[in-house]
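Sequence only, no structure available. Ideas?
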Amino acid sequence: MSALVLALIAGAVIGLALGALGGGGSVLAVPALIYLLGFTPAAATTASLIIVAATSATALYAHTRDGHVAWKAGSLFAAAGIIPAYLTGAASGHVAEAVLTVAFAVIAALAAVRMFRPSTSEPAGRTRAGKAAGAGAGLGAVTGFLGVGGGFLAVPALVSVLGLTMRRAVGTSLLVITVNSLAALTARAGSGGGLDWALIGPFTGAAILGAWDGKRLSAKVSGDGLQKVFAGVLLAVAVFMLIDVIA
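Reply:
I predicted one. Tokens follow.
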């Protein structure tokens, strides 16, 4: 199977998950770029940010039309992550590729375990501004360093810290992902010379189209069931990456 076909298939699957879950799908972009398309870990994390930013912005528009984005809360959460995303995005270029791969696999495994657990929300009155800022900053740091949108962390954080409903957390997470991804890309602006745009372009286009279908899917399929299936796939990918590095 050609690299172009693989890029289109991977992009469609990732976009579908991102549109349906508001996150989680983007975490598969990095392993797909490495193991299916032959990118180095450093190039994969940068390319992933491009794909994630474009796809999240598209999915955000779709969720905005349905009124599922908490703009004020989401903007504050996203703002806290801008500087950490920029700093870790710049720092990632100086880290050994094996370290990047292991760090990514560990975060992916933790995310999968978190997605298996049901989400619970705090009453809005218990929301702490400092806690929200800390969660937003931590999410931005992960996004910048590993090149992932961080929606698998953003959705539960928005539910538990800001007291949003799951549906509004999914839509709002896309705002956070878009902002953090763009901040991290700014830090990596000079490191994109080795990227294969002939694959990144189709990958991104397929992901954007998949995100629209994912948005429609989220209204018809049980969110919990879809999340558990995806968590199983994510955990398997994380284990494979760790074994590959060790071997």
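The two ends are 26 Å apart (CA to CA).
Hope that gets you unstuck.
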